[in-house]
User: Fold these one by one.
Assistant:
Number 1:
Amino acid sequence: MNRIDRASRTIAAAPAAIYDALLDREALEAWLPPDGMRGRIERWDPRPGGGFRMVLTYLDPSGSPGKTSDATDVVDVGFADLVRPARVVQTAVFRADDPAYAGTMTMTWHLAAAGDGTEVTVTATGVPSGIDQADHEAGIASSLANLASYVEPGD
């Protein structure tokens, strides 16, 4: 269980703007779901020890059956550590009957100033064995691309 899934991206926005997008309910619903999914937050408590429940729905579940149901992944996310504007540490537990998706995954979002932008690095540990590493890293990269589109100034 020493697996570490990771993705990073330089985003043309200040660390504080990205931090805010990590702790805003509407923002997370807009950018966190990777391509092929949409998300809805059911409960929200943005403080250390708080968290949220997100229901992720596959737009086409035929190729990627969900962990909770055929078309959904439900994940309970806790805020383990919040350090403005440098780091957000989340714990994630999937609602699934399959033991391959059991356990608590830790997602650490590191935000480091990089020139006129921010280097955002996401590191996942404790990833359930049922989640393919390449698919997970592609999903994180997709979320980072969505985040960039959400926070970067338009032309």
Number 2:
Amino acid sequence: MGSRGLDGIIEWKSDFETGIARIDFEHKIFIELLNSFKYEINLKRSDEELFRIMNEIEKYAEFHFISEENAMRRMNYPAFKEHQIEHFELLEKFNLAKFKNCNFEGFHTFLKEWFLRHTVESDIKLKLYMLENNINLEDYFYELKI
């Protein structure tokens, strides 16, 4: 599989599900972007091409973080500020990586580990909060039907 550039990809797991269809859908897109980045690294694309993909991932992360934070604010999620700080810290790491010689493989590994940890540790807390407080998503925003 490595010769086709498929080693190191992330497969979607039910452990990642927050119960908010829109956020789960956005997480799936984020995984696709990370997998595309890994695939292009394995194909030994140029630094310029890899930086462009990093930029795409960064811009998508900015969008997704705002989307996720808006959902948290609407629900009065008590850990909102801490969660927002985690998002900010990741975006700072993107900024730093853009201004130094980047080890793309290492940056992909960092992003992959960050996503997996953040999703199963921090984003899942939102799911638990909704369950514990009997929150009906339709009271807060239009629920995406996928």
Number 3:
Amino acid sequence: MSSYVIREIKPEDNEQVKKVVQSVLVEMGVPKVGTAYEDASLNNMHAEYSEPGKAYFVVDDNGKIIGGAGIAPLANFEGSICELQKMYFLPEVRGKGVGAEMMKKCLDYAKEQGFEKCYIETMPYMNQARKLYLRSGFKQLDSPLGNTGHYNCSVWMIRDL
């Protein structure tokens, strides 16, 4: 992998980000319904994450988007909990420490926004992702928080900020 930067999403990144998210979900065998695959926000991620308290960061490798992750207030939940959203990386970047770097960027942003906890939903067979979340201080929950609409995601985790 050549040099990359982690930066906030730009309007011209929208199509590449959508392809990254959907291709990783297909690769992992994730259902296309009840998951991020069908989120309408994928069509304009820049606009979706331009609201207060939201940010989406991309991994830009000389103009090619190879990963990304976002922070937003947890949907349908009262309180100061944010959600780590749409954290996906192409195979070429996995296992190289970029996920941990992205996690730090997102959690630092969440703290700056005044969130007290960070929540995430994932799939039980996304083992590498779950290992990263555990290493980053997330603990498993017995049931979901809020209502993200991702009813096929059956692993829920949270950590203090």
